[in-house]
Amino acid sequence: MEFFAGEYEFLCNRLLPQLLTSTLCGFLVGYGREKRGRPAGIRTNILIAAGCTLYSSLGFYLAEKNPMIDPTRIIGQIATGIGFLGAGAIVKSDQKVTGVTTAAFIWAISGISILIGYNMYLVPVVATVGLVLVVWLFELVEKKMHKGQPVDPKDSVQEY
After folding, report:
1. What is the pTM of this model?
2. In whole angstroms, what is the distance from residue 145 CA to residue 75 CA?
3. Distance from the first to the final alpha carbon of the chain
């Protein structure tokens, strides 16, 4: 068992609490989207959150063990992958562009999850709750603003 001591410590003392926290944050963001029938619901947000946390946690852990390792390079690669996912969520058809909000959610939950991988807990959880509340509040404001207005079919941007 001594052979796995370093891995066991990393898993139990660091990675599991981080993955549980990122799963909670991904669930909170995904639940709101799932409830409204939007793309990138619970499972997608949990997978993005867990993956970003796993990669960033490993990067920071390896940097602690070897100062020659730069964890920001891993974060840069996470950003590249998330940009690819976000771009795949954006679709243009006819005169409409959809999926921009979905891409923004993917981008936001990845940033929150990187903070968790850095061993932060309070800031990412507060940011997640704030994100969910702000989006919910502005959705209500937008509905109130557009209430009673005719929908213009030539409107070139439509959000999910």
Report:
1. 0.84
2. 39
3. 51
